Amino acid sequence: MKNYWDKAISFGEYVQTGKSRLENPANQQEADFKHYYELGLQRIDRTLKKYIPNEEQLTELQSKNFDGKILIISEVWCGDASATVPALVKFFEGRNEVKIFLRDSDKSLIDQFLTNGTESIPKVIILDKDFNVKNSWGPRPKFGHELLLKYKADPENYTKDLFYNDLQVYYAKNRGKDAVQEILELL
Q1: Which of 26, 36, 49, 86 could form a disulfide bond with 77, CB atoms 3.0-4.6 angstroms apart?
Q2: Which DSSP string do the residues of 21-78 spell out, in sequence order?
Q3: Has residue 67 been placed in a domain?
Q4: Percentage, residues of the chain above pLDDT 70
């Protein structure tokens, strides 16, 4: 895990990478994902402006004496990531180091943390101070997963558009609180 950590980037570099890919796509996928990069960057900006760490959650973090690191597998274009990654970064800021590993740059890390056989992101890997994996979380909070299951159970009546809309409304209202709480429970 230390090798992945060393290859990972800061949150600022992550956002800058997204902006660069939006403005100067290096390949067809980046060009095809232009709209998703735009949305991701807008959502990241909104989350950064709206998210305020919850005092009770900060107290809970302090009580756990967690001295490890947080490694997040992500991409800027991902809707789930744009809602949770900035909140996690702000929550752990000044407390525990957080770095981001770009999923599409090297699939060997995500291949170790598949979700039902898929490369779903974000994936949060909780590391101890010696880079051992303590736990992992992702790609979305329990409520978001429940919405996904509702869509998969009845896609004709609960369409993909409704699912995506409900998920983004949830993220906008929740502002990362559930994701932070679920990760706190895994520390």
Answers
A1: 36
A2: HHHS-SSHHHHHTHHHHHHHHHHHHHHHHH----HHHHHHHHHHT---EEEEEE-TT-
A3: yes
A4: 100
The CATH number that applies at residue 117 is 3.40.30.10
Which portions of the chain are predicted below pLDDT 50?
Answer: none
Does residue 144 lie in a domain region? no
- Domain of residue 11 covers 2-139+175-184
148 found inside a domain? no
Burial of 51 (0-12, 13-18, 19+ CB in 10 A): buried
Q: Determine, yes or no, domain membership for 123.
A: yes
**What does the pLDDT look like over 86-135, one tens digit per residue?**
999 999 999 999 999 999 999 999 999 999 999 999 999 999 999 999 99
Contact criterion met (CB below 8 Å) for 184 and 61: yes
Pull the structure tokens for residue 116: 């039902």
